[in-house]
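Quick one - first record:
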Amino acid sequence: MIPTRNVNIIFRRKMIGDVIKIPIRLSTSFQRSVCPKEPTKPSVHLPFPGPKSQELFKELNQIQQAESVQLFADYDKSIGNYLVDVDGNVLLDLYTQISSLPLGYNHPKLLKIFSDDHKIRTLINRPALGVYPGEDYPRMLKNVLLKVAPPQMSNVVTMMCGACSNENAMKHMFISYQRKIRGNDTDYTETEMKTSITNLPPGCPELSILSFYESFHGRTLGALSVTHSKAIHKLDFPAFDWPIAHFPKYKYPLNENMCENDKEDDRCLAEVEELIEKYRKKGKPVAGIIVEPIQAEGGDNEASPIFFQKLQLIAKQNSASLLIDEVQTGCGVTGKMWCHEYFNLPTPPDLVTFSKKMQVGGYYHTAEMKPSLSYRIFNTWMGDPGKLLILEEVLNVMQQEKLIENVNKVGKKLMNELFHLQYEFPSVINSVRGRGTFLAFNAADSKMRQKLILKLQELGINIGVCGERSIRLRPALTFQERQASMFLDALRGAITLVLA
């Protein structure tokens, strides 16, 4: 059951007869809120989880395994960057539904989308897009998804979620690899067709996908074979014998450890090459490489542009496709629409997957990757045009409100002040890193992280974790400098309380 704690105050805490006050800056300067009715500050008056959350948990847990539930939210009252729970606590949210809300809660322009009759019909008459798309679907793809496509990527496939996007993108890589060998992807022998039905080669060839330790690409069976972040994701499930390389583990601060980190790049890239050769000799050639720009669930591990440039070169030299998983890092949160734009790749990746803040799942791919036959990449819904309508308005707001500029401005403030905090409290936090507002830092150990998370929650901050001891920031694109100041003050207060 959800654990309970005795907490009934905010911004103060009795300790050995004293009251430690945590000053919270409500505003450093006047800023117009993108969501004007949002609260001015967090407010906590009941412990987490509160009595209503606990009752709802009991009800839900009788129906399904619900141990992952932290609280129950009131989504009618949640607004902007603030999550309100059913017990009336108001939390400044830096986690935003596992990084999936681009504009925060109940943005006024999003609430108006389905006031149009045509859009309501688009929402409720959910089509099997692979066979019966609506007349405006090509326009929607061109004007919404291709409008923000990574440079030089002209094709897009829509899906339901991040996991199924990666799953189908990997299938796409296998099609491409076999086409290179066969010379086409249309002429199949009778033997290939018959053996494919019984899971045997040559119809089902022995191919592999190379992935990295600490990676996370989803929880479907194929995606789990390239996911390596937590045992609980994988226990009891059969997996493919596919190669796993080490992703760079850098020393921080980066500017003080350049030589060591360059050697780490070289070590990991050498391992990639060795594994590709090893699996070629095993008769399981690597058809593709899947990698995150920043390993989110594995601990917000990052790698240099040079690492990704060389990784792409290795893929090309071995006739393998390069799939960059931007499910968490896409849609502007790193300060660019797509995180891999920082890497200055000489040519675009072969495939880029997306979901979360993009509202709809799917992947972009180069024109050369397009399959020749229908039904190769297919399911009933193939995405959701209703979600594309939401994304269309999200992108309009992003442009009108210059939200990627906002991400860079707020991210710079967060990064600079987090650097100061890690130098001031090196025994508590370290290794500040990231891009835009997609940031993270490490606690001294997992126990210290848990203490900080609980104190931050008491102070009205909802935040996430990843890896063994990392705390990650995943605010909405609408997160403002004044809210960054409130978080930073709360973090300083949490550190002070932990050390008291």
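second record:
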Amino acid sequence: MQFINNLLLDMELDPRLVEYLSIIIKILLIGLICFAANFITKKIVIRIITRIVTNSKVEWGKIILDRQVFRKLSHIVPAIIIYSFSSTFPTYQSTIEKLAITYIIIVALVFIQSLLNAFNDIYQTFDISKVKPIKGYVQVVNIIIMTLGFILVISNLIGESPLILLSGIGALSAVFMLVFKDSLLGLVAGIQLTANDMVRVGDWIEMPKFGANGDVIDISLNTVKVQNFDKTITMLPSYALISDSFINWRGMQSSGGRRIKRSLYIDTSSITFCTEEMIEKFIKVHYLSDYIIQKEREITEYNAKNGIDRNNPVNGRALTNIGVFRAYISNYLKNHEGINQNMTAMVRQLAHSEYGLPLEIYAFTNSVQWAVYETVQSDIFDHLFAVAPEFGLRVFQNPSGADLRNMVEESSSKALSGERSY
């Protein structure tokens, strides 16, 4: 730089003009050096690094390249050059150094943030990330680093020690508690969710209070993102999963069976003892033949042993159509290919109500897929609704408009026939 000054002075120019020309030339030279360094860094060095990473076939190499970690770091080179040449301008040296250091700090913060995000992306390639997500922790580290970086930038610009600014944070702790309330609650909730393995990415959770019913697609510091089955997105506060109750269907999905728990309401007026004709009919049913033969032998031996007169159906033991129907459903479920035979399967009676006698089917399908589950459940009840009349049973249903219309028409026809006979 002194050489430039001497060269201009040797040209016998005005000293004031020499001063301005030297400053302009110095700025142009420094700018040219910065441009050349930036060009070499991005066009040559980064391309070499990219080629090395690509050829190495490292799984996480592409993630680092996608996050542009090295490209963001390259922005620091011009700032270092400007800082190195700040002594060329003694009058403005302090200002130039402060601005250059500020830029270096900002570039470093962007680089660290990109590096942390790349680390999180690499971690998500492992299966353990679904069990122990770290995105919330990465966001906490980002907040801490950004806060420290902001303090360093301010202290550099005002020319004071960062410790002075840090000492003032204690007085502003209450303000920080208010500003970062959600982040702090989210951090605590995230630690509890992870430590207790309460929620993972991919879990089906249900939280009616927030209208959430779907799969967890993301867990972050402050929110848990749920994609509902109607493809809408519900954002849940992380701490809400700790403070409120929710349903996690992971246990059902991992068990290999999904529960069917639905009742068939039987009209109690249709329940009766089985007649000889009914028994002869039931014994020809594939799922009932063995049951009828065994029960008839058992009942006959019991009645004979106790000398019971069966002329009155109230005496002794006898088969009922509801009992035979329950046995039929039980055997039907045992032979159904859509029912998981390694899990609980039973048919039971619940307490009688104004809607009739509930006959509950409690079983598990052998698939947890929603469509398959609904198909199996519908097939079972389609069959049971159709076969119930074969046992002399009626499924309860409140009278509909058609029922009332038929009653009125029957009453009217009887009244007309009575008038005509009169």
